[in-house]
Write a structure and sequence with these properties.
Blueprint (H helix, E strand, L loop, with lengths): L10 H9 L18 E5 L35 E5 L4 E6 L8 E5 L15 E5 L4 H4 L1 E7 L6 E10 L2 E5 L5 E7 L10 E3 L5 E4 L22 E5 L28 E4 L4 E6 L6 E5 L5 E7 L10 E2 L2 E2 L16 E4 L6 E6 L12 E5 L4 E8 L4 E8 L9 E4 L5 E4 L8 E6 L1 H6 L4 H15 L1
Amino acid sequence: MNARRFAFAWSIPLAIAALASAIPAAARADLDIRPLPFTVETAFPQLVWTGWKSEDADGIATPLRPILVTHAGDGSNRLFVPTQQGVIHVFSNGQNAKPTTIFLDISSNVSFNVKTDEEGFLGLAFPPKYREQGRFFVYYTNKHRPHQNVLASYGVRKDAPNRADPDSEEILFTFKKPFWNHDGGTLCFGPDGYLYVALGDGGAANDPLGHGQRLNTWLGKILRVDVERRDEGLPYAIPKDNPFAGRDDARPEIWAYGLRNVWRMSFDRKTGVLWAADVGQDTWEEIDLIVKGGNYGWNLREARNPFGQHGSPPRADLIEPIWEYHHNLGKSIIGGPVYRGKQFPELDGAYLYADYVAGRAWALWYDPQQERVVANREFKLPNKTPIMSFGEDEQGEVYLTFAAANGRGVLRLVRTAAQSASRTLSRERQSRVVRRAADHFE
């Protein structure tokens, strides 16, 4: 998710903001919906999660709940996998990886219960200067203060790069939510070096306190802060170009608003565009391209549709999603990354996402020249796997996660047997296929 090595293409998201409301909601006849010849398999079949047990002391099952796969961006080729209970594991990225090392265990401070399963350890991000500074950022719900969420940083031990110092916590901010659900939780650094934080609308149903449209609260927002500097009285700084900086009626950290509960957002490594999957309520799930100061409509709109008693028709100041789907297809969208790895060139530029309830997953291509989605192609999840999250390694290869009773909850993409056989085609023919795909989707 750390796209710091790529130039930030502000012109693309600004154009998207202006044109978003003109994109037709209905799928066009020429939309490519052919199934993709991909599936998933256990990424690290020999991996042993140090300290994790499949049952607690009372014999109750405790599935491993990996909420992310990420890397430090430091050239070490390590993978970091935090669990929702508050333990971050680290291990070398390889098929034969075996025991993990516990990088950080703050489970004693993290509130997680299966009955309130949107709480817990929810976000982890390594900054561009992690190699030099050794600090990283986490987001979690506080076990000791009900409904309180925490954004904090920790430092790694200088004598042990695979172990963080649990006593090094520095809190950037805390805030209290009115309800237990809709915690959001994605942390990611943009190509501009700033930290972006996705926060839910505060919970319950219908956004009863109207947080999504209010600029005097962080709830229902994406925030943007500078963790390399400090403003007076703050453990971070407000970037001067934040859209509401300097306004008395708005929180200066806000980057975008009108969001219900973004469950995963990510920057495209190549273009710098910020993609977000916003979980719907009654009828619609949506995918948004996030732009500076953008208002994404909640709770006036649910995706491209009026919501509730005071629902709004389309308005010039409300940015519509680039994609929506009905609850007859799925009921809880899980956002992933735009694929920029090398292993599957035919997926280059595809935004990967899944639906937790339906156990389905897709690759979606958006054409900025045509201002529309040109392909939405499903790939098979065995046994309707309820994907919880996605992640990437340093090379841009993608992983998917789910709550696994046997601990094998980290998956990787693989070609199906049929496609593997088809790769015996001549190199010349394969080259033509890849070229045509690239021409169509670039």
